Prior knowledge:
The chain is α+β, with helices and mostly antiparallel strands. The chain has one domain (2-89): 2-Layer Sandwich (Arylsulfatase, C-terminal domain), CATH 3.30.1120.10. The protein has 3 helices and 4 strands.
Amino acid sequence: MRPYILDDKRNNRDHVIQAFGWIAAVRAPEWKYSAIGNREKYAGEYAPQLYDTRKDPQELKNVAEQHPAVVKDLHAKLERYIASGSNITGGSFVEKAG
């Protein structure tokens, strides 16, 4: 993760995905987007968040409403990632496949 976060030019990934509990995040060179990974199984409230990590490295100002196209793109990447492993995980980051 270190080269990616530091925008190391040798990094060949355009994004990485991480998760903690039911919340998943997509980190791209300029953005960090977080949302619930599986709304069908998570009953809590969590509004999607988007941070411009170059202008706001401490992630203090959620700019999701100002950048709906970025939210849509990063959310689609998150959904593709979850779907790609759903036969293993059941679409969840926190439950064992049954």
